[in-house]
Amino acid sequence: MQLVKKTMMMAGALLLALNVCGQENVPAEKKVEKKVTSENHDVGKVNFKVSADVVSSYVWRGAYNAGASIQPTLGMSAGNFSLTVWGSKEISDLHKEIDITAAYRFGRVSVSVADYWWEGDKFWEKEDNSSAKYFNLDNHDTKHRLEAGISWAISERFPLSVAWNTMFWGADKDARDGKQNYSSYVELNYPFTVRQINLTATLGFTPYESRNMYGTGGFDVCNIALSAAKEIRTSKRFSLPVFSRVVLNPAAQDAHVVFGFTLQ
What we know:
12-stranded antiparallel β-barrel, 3 helices
């Protein structure tokens, strides 16, 4: 418990310090980019996005999931509604994941429902894999996990966002009695810019026990991260977005460094 308190105090001090650093003026090109994005989400206009990340390892909410992976995204948005299909395929092994997320934005508040399925590698195992099949939607046997989420972006002046996510259906079950665990994860993100490098500080924790999903026995910090992103221009017509992330997981006493780039 002392470790958790110390971690929370350190994270709070970090966010306070980042608030001071984050008061730098936003570059003009970023303001233009934001304006264009807003115009692209006019009601009645449908937009599509196709991209893919290539990452040195797949780390999610502080936990290592797979090695070097290709992670494609296909997204659609219309007004305040968005639908995103995201996948991950490990390059040198069998890990495969498909996630589908529907979200709606009400001003600075967004609500979402996500379907997670990361049992694709089970098809290659010799034992019975019927429960791992993608179209097995039996709540007591499926490997899908449905999660409801809500997030709040405080303001442009103080761009801290707070999100709460809870799994409410599917494979997130208690092994002892088969009941739903309702595993929850809370995450705070603070974006800021230093010398034209876009940085994001992240603090993630479980509000109560979630041993099966996040390996925590109660309130515990499982994700402290600092991400950096920058576009490297290789020619007048082409630039390559690259990013790196340092991740600490106090709950698991683990740490990760991830590098990647985006094709779009």
